[in-house]
């Protein structure tokens, strides 16, 4: 092989290698920088979306807790007022019955026992009513919380789906 043929082959081979490298190179430096910048911006936006979801849901849970606490406070006030009034009435009746027992009025012991039993039953009923109200308020708060959690999961899934191109990075 002569020197001229060798150099001609080397030149053709070099040109072919250059053309192949140029054609098959993934991207230029500017393209990579632009892509990195775009993906960084997408990451920033998605993290901002996640943060806003978290803030919003945190506010929702605070409102749920505040409403539940207000409901329980109202229930407690109502029941304590009912109990107070009930105790005042029952104490007057029982005081009168006790006086009758001291005075030896016939049938006063039975009357005192019956009134004590009634007072106890009314107190039990009021306590059970309060327990039921608290349970109902708790169930409602849980249901609302579950709905908020489900909604937050859906928003997170949507945000994740919108930012799926980040997975290709």
Topology:
Layout: H1 3-24, H2 29-103, H3 108-162
Protein name: YtxH domain-containing protein
Organism: Carnobacterium inhibens
InterPro entries: Desiccation-related_membrane, YtxH
Explain this structure.
This protein has 169 residues and is mainly alpha-helical. It is 90% helix and 0% strand. Helix 2 runs antiparallel to helix 3 (108-162). The radius of gyration is 41 Å and the shape is rod-shaped. It holds the Pfam family YtxH. Keywords: Membrane, Transmembrane, Transmembrane helix. The chain crosses the membrane at residues 6-25.
Give the helices and strands as they follow along the chain.
HHH
Q: Mean pLDDT across all residues, rounded?
A: 79
Oligomeric form of this entry?
single chain
Quickly name the level 1 CATH class: Mainly Alpha
Percentage of residues assigned to helices:
over 70%
End-to-end Cα distance, whole Å, is 50 Å
Structural Rg = 41 Å
Tell me the domain tally: 1
Indicate the CATH architecture: Orthogonal Bundle
For the largest beta-sheet, the strand count, sense and barrel status come to: none
> According to CATH, what is the topology?
Helix Hairpins
Helices and strands: which structural class? mainly alpha
**Structural shape:** rod-shaped
Stretches with pLDDT under 50, minimum 5 residues: none
Number of helical elements: 3
Main features:
single chain, 169 residues, mainly alpha, Helix Hairpins, rod-shaped
Quick gist of this model?
The protein has helices at 3-24, 29-103, 108-162. The chain is mainly α and 169 residues long. The radius of gyration is 41 Å and the shape is rod-shaped.
